[in-house]
Amino acid sequence: DQATEDLHETMETLEVKNAELDMARKRAQEGSRVKSEFLANMSHEIRTPLNGIIGFTNLLLKSNLNETQREYLTTLQNSAEGLLAMINDILDFSKIEAGKLVLESTPMNLRELVDEVLAIAAPTAHDKSLEIACLIYRDVPLDIIGDPLRLRQVLTNLVNNAIKFTSDGSVVVRVMLDHQEDGHAILKVSVTDTGVGISESQQKHLFQAFSQVDNSRTRKIGGTGLGLVICKNLVEQMQGDIGLESHIGESSTFWFTFKAPFAAEGQLSQLNCRL
Ligand code: ADP
Questions:
Q1: How far away, in angstroms, is 223 Cα from ligand 1 center?
Q2: Is residue 84 within 8 Å of 71, Cβ to Cβ?
Q3: What is the pLDDT of residue 266?
Q4: Whose CA is nearest to atom 1 of ligand 1?
Q5: Are 230 and 93 in contact (CB under 8 A)?
Q6: Are 148 and 172 in contact (CB under 8 A)?
Q7: Does Cell membrane count among this protein's keywords (predicted)?
Q8: Over the chain, what is the mean pLDDT?
Q9: Mapping DSSP to helix (H, G, I), strand (E, B) and coil, where does residue 244 land?
């Protein structure tokens, strides 16, 4: 009868719509994959000539230059390094989107890593007359298993941000033991600055892709807005978490936790021998 016929017709329409939806979903997935691949390839291709520019700029800076030449070349070096940092962020982000960013596990020393990050950041901090300090609490196990490159990346990002957004005062890094379990510790690293701070409404978006806090200072300073998104993904892969506390116009403390399996006795000395 008519009702059954209508029902059949509706069901047919529904099936067609479902098939269309499926097709659209597949096209979107394919589009997203192509986009990630394109981003990854482009970033890779841009990195090669950029490394050439940076390498030769460094070489030139070691030669005999007058003051103006040195000043111009230093500006060129800073711009090229800023661009490389952005390209690296885009490359990492496209890897994350494609599920291809995988962490390593090697024996490493936490103190060496923190010292390295601070040694690199110190000149920029001192140029701005900022104090930069580090406290590693006594109960923190230093010989651990982790991905030194990625841990350094997270800490560097937080320290660089702290320096960028602070015009006077200090930047302090603290490394603490959150708690200890069988064979591993959960460690907490925090970076406290006395900078511009971030309002509560803006804090929510910090860990979402492409969402920089929109103010004139940020626009002037630049960046991709991907740094913290990448940090969040990295610490989550280390079975940790990331967060912040901030008071506008006063200070910000960014912190992250991560799981740190203890390096067995001898693992680090083996590593040192290989080096
Ligand atoms: P980018 O990679 O562009 O530096 P991030 O994801 O690292 O971006 O940071 C996003 C935004 O968060 C920054 O542009 C800035 O507005 C804000 N921010 C990050 N750290 C701080 C800080 N310590 N003090 C004030 N604002 C900060």
A1: 8
A2: no
A3: 60
A4: 225
A5: yes
A6: no
A7: yes
A8: 89
A9: strand
Alpha-carbon span 262 to 184, nearest angstrom: 5
pLDDT in tens, 56-102: 999 999 999 999 999 999 999 999 998 999 899 988 998 888 888 99
Count CB-CB contacts under 10 A for residue 117. Answer: 23
**Tens-place pLDDT, residues 17-58:** 999 999 999 998 888 778 878 887 888 888 899 999 999 999
- The count of residues in the chain is 275
The DSSP output letter for 208 is: S
Question: What's the DSSP call for residue 99?
Answer: T
Task: Read off the pLDDT of residues 194-215 as tens digits, 9 standing for 90 and up.
Answer: 999 999 999 988 998 866 555 5
pLDDT at 220 over 70: no
Half-sphere exposure of 66 (CA within 13 A, CB side): 1
**Distance from Cα 225 to the centre of ligand 1, integer Å:** 7
Residue for token digits 């021998």? Answer: 273
**In the chain, alpha helices (H):** 2-61, 67-97, 110-127, 148-164, 200-203, 216-221, 227-237, 267-274
Pairing of strands 184-193, 143-146: unpaired
Written as six digits, the tokens of 126 are: 């001192």
Please give the model's pTM, rounded to 2 decimal places. Answer: 0.82
What is the rounded distance in angstroms from the CA atom of residue 264 to the CA atom of residue 173?
A: 26
For ligand 1, residues with CB inside 6 Å are 89, 157, 161-162, 165, 193, 195-196, 198, 206, 212-213, 218, 223-228, 252
The three-class DSSP label of residue 124 is: helix
Atom of ligand 1 nearest to the CA of 157: 7
CA dihedral over 240, 245, 249, 251, signed as positive or negative: negative
Q: What's CA 80's distance to the chain center, in Å?
A: 19
